[in-house]
Amino acid sequence: MADGQKYEAVIGLEIHAQLATYSKLFCGDAASFGAEPNTHISPITMGHPGTLPKTNAKAIEYAIRIGLACGSKIAKDNYFARKNYFYPDLPKGYQVSQHTTPICEGGSITIQLPTGEKNIQLNRIHLEEDAGKSIHDISATDTLIDFNRAGTPLIEMVTEPCIHSAEEAFLFVSEVRKLVRWIGICDGNMEEGSLRCDANISIRLKGTTSLGTRVEVKNLNSIRNIKKAIEFEIDRLIQITESGGTIIQQTRSFDANNDTTFSIRDKEDANDYRYFPDPDLAPLHLTDTFIESIKNKLPTLPATLKKQWKIEYDLSDYAIDQLVEDKEEADFYIQWASASKNYKAIANWMIGPIRAAINEGSIHFQQLSSLIPYLVELVELVETNQLSFSVASTKVLKEIMTNPGSPKVYANTNNLLQTSSTKEIEKWIEEVLTNNPSKVAEYKKGKKGLLGLFVGEVKKISKGKADPKITTSLLEQKLA
Ligand code: ADP
Ligand code: MG
After folding, report:
1. Which residue's CA lies nearest to atom 24 of ligand 1?
2. Ligand 2 mean position to 155 CA, how many Å?
3. Residues 193 and 256 in one domain
4. CATH number of the structural domain spanning residue 448
5. Cα separation of 223 and 231, whole Å?
6. Total domains in the fold of the chain
7. Cβ < 6 Å from ligand 1: which residues?
8. How would residue 1 be classed by pLDDT, with cut points 50, 70 and 90?
């Protein structure tokens, strides 16, 4: 068994995120996913002689947006460089990237570990264009190529080698996915390849600081696979070292069928990409005003909301984490909570029945927005014990969503309002006790756990109208 206590894992991630622009980075071809192969390919995408690329301003804006969200320094002067290499899916024979002058430098993203927060430091975020796609599994004899993806805009986010476990990597990528969606620059869809990750992994003896020889696992396309690939590699590297072997610098791939990795190639010392500034593209000179205008449009970030809500709404950490998972959800919570004072109850409604309705696809947040006055009333009815939560969250909520109107009027008309009238509840209790003589005898012999069953029965025959607190205390008195 390899000795995990002796070693520390060192991990650096490179994340590619496809920017959600309409068109490609240097031409007007659509950048959307899923079209018929080779339908989004103008002569510019294909790099035909005589064509001239032109930079998509939206992509620049999106790259700055993520940089600002991560607290990176925005490089005001930067240019695109050609990275020259041959590959069938690269129509121009070079990839346009930002080798020397990344548009964003440094910055960090905070992850929440069980032991507290940790800032994952970024080295850079730069813009580059994607390559096309080779397809090996359609024809038995040929590799087919789809150039639709060639030239679509990507940002590449590169971390410092400051991640020390598969779990940290998992949390980091989850946070990146949340952030890019939050600020609206990428759909974060890993299955469609909108977010892809390369993991660089090495190990060293605990307490040492120099970096060991690394392996790079390429093109991980799910957060679970990132975690599994890293776990596998850490174990493998430790085993090689412990058995006296030497780690060689390699590029590897993940096999999702058995959660292992395999070598694709040993990394040659240095590839000669012959980088040089792209002579067809104007260098970027970003003004403070331009950067400032992007900053002003940036939505409040989850980290800021978390701090605000803790103070303003006194929510639990769990509730806050749940609510800032998704921007639409968070926005809707703010809208609802600003119309009422039942902040905590609303948070529970959001995480419970509202999320369930959204996930079922029975309603959108946009539709829910127009129901705010009714939703406020609904929560108020529950909070003042006029309506049971179970009746409110099933029957009444459904009614409001299909036939918008006052929940109080509906509940009243349909005889759903909870009663705290002792007389009425006593009648139901009497009925339940008469119908269950043997249970009553057992209870009296000491099986006190049966109280819940009686409360449940009262709830059932009263159709949810009996206030459970009053029912419980009346039952206790009756059975004493
Ligand atoms: P390359 O140009 O080969 O992609 P970089 O120096 O840009 O290499 O680093 C790529 C990623 O690898 C970065 O996230 C970096 O933090 C990480 N990295 C570099 N060296 C190591 C190492 N020895 N162990 C783990 N990660 C490393
Ligand atoms: Mg790399």
Report:
1. 202
2. 14
3. yes
4. 1.10.10.410
5. 13
6. 3
7. 10-14, 158-161, 200-202, 211-212, 214
8. very low
